[in-house]
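Thread: "does anyone have the structure for this chain?"

Original post by V.I.:
We have the sequence but no experimental structure in hand. Need at least a predicted one for the grant figures.
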Amino acid sequence: MQESNTSPTEGTPISEGEAIARLRQTEDMANRYYAAWWLGRMRSRHPEAVPLLCQALHRISSLEPETGPEKGHEKGVDAKAIAMNAARALGRMNAQASIPDLLDVLDADDYRLREVAAQALGDLKAAAAVPALTNRLASGTNGAGKPSSEGSPQLNEPCEAMLEALGEIGNSSAEIIAIITPFSNHERPLIKSAACRALLQLTEDNSWAMSIEKLLNHPQPLVRRGALIDLGAVGWLPALKAINETQVENSLKLIALKGLAEHGRPSRMTPTHNIHVLEAMDALL
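Reply from O.Q.:
Generated one for you, tokens below.
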């Protein structure tokens, strides 16, 4: 289930205390789902937030279908959906204490749960996740990167999320570079872009940035959007002109430009760089 920014049960804003209360109760699944999203969105620092979100992760450890009388199932909300929102929230909240719980979810049988766990561990720059991530990717493009079944859009592993997580964590050992590099030639452009993004972060070799930039001209809009976000996420300043000229929505260009402003590479942002980026953002507004 895709993350939502509105309550499945009501549209009125809630307080932090109400979000905690909704997450603590177990009868209404839709309220728990919204509460998990809300706490992450607001970067909650409530002392009960992290423990309750970690509890939400553990409720899906068996991945058994929910059969109880809880409300919310009619809206498509189940323990898995709540756990996914909880994982995202923990990453946004920089909840370092949740790393062991997220590592447990990284071993789940469910593909989407492994994906959100990898994303959260990347957000947390969790060095402890490197062995698990590299073990899952070590089989390469013919293992982890192979479709789970013939014609399936889903691979054996959520490679895009796992590659991006390794780039965010920042361990640039030769072993990790060797595991990531084959994915830079993956047949799926978004996997290729994620691998090049990670390699750029870990090596500062601008050839990887150029590989991503080439995807900005890809005929598929989804690929152009993904490459744009990847260049912004790593703050590759030489991509400013290419980002401006890419045929994607201005809202995504603004996200990418914000990334350039916050994470400017290969050198620290100079006043001139900052002016150029801000001028480009102003032009889009």
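V.I.: this helps a lot. Residues 1-10, 61-69 have pLDDT under 50 and may be disordered.
O.Q.: and The CA atoms of residues 131 and 176 lie 9 Å apart.
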